[in-house]
Amino acid sequence: MTASKSSGAGRTYTVVDFLYLGVIAVVFAVLFTLWWNVYYAVKAILGPVGTRILTYGLWFMPIPLAASLIRKPLAGLLGEVLPALLEAIFPTPGGIYNLYYGIAQGLAGEAGYAVFRYRKYGVVQAAVSGALPAVPALILDAVLFEDIYPWNQMVVLLVALMISGAMYGLIAYSVSLSIERR
Q1: How much is the pTM?
Q2: Comparing C-alpha atoms, which of 148, 152, 129, 132 is closest to residue 140?
Q3: Distance CA 4, CA 121 (A)
Q4: CA dist list (Å): 27 to 22, 23, 46, 65
Q5: pLDDT mean over 175-182
Q6: Cα–Cα distance for residue pair 68/109, rounded to 1 Å
Q7: Which phi and psi (to 5°) does residue 84 adopt?
Q8: Which of 112, 119, 129, 163 has the fewest CB atoms within 10 Å of its CB?
């Protein structure tokens, strides 16, 4: 569809790439802001593990979506940081911490493509890119919000976060395929 998609050789960002990033930033900033309500509702019903499986992956989703659409280094990082920056400006429970999460999660998710030297942007990379942000998310939850449990429960939470991220990564990949077909 785009020059970046068809050629794959160029690493220079195009206007279309920046438009994708802009749309992802706005759409996900709004989703992130609204998602806090879903997060707290699910948390009240399912507790920490269920909440992480069902909700956290949405906060990781822009990484594989941006990377799958743009297919250039740092697209995933930018796809996560830009909506997190907007979310940090909106009045949400996370406040400025949303930006910290966006940077840390974006870097972790970007690694899912970097390990393949930015040559593959398939379903495996999307799932890995969605799962990797679980590590900094869990660490930041513990450090910033004192969301700490015994080590064995922390491992369960990490696995729950990774499952959620991988699921939402696959959804992001599917969305990118839908966009490509247009």
Answers
A1: 0.91
A2: 148
A3: 13
A4: 9, 6, 27, 12
A5: 88
A6: 12
A7: -65, -35
A8: 119
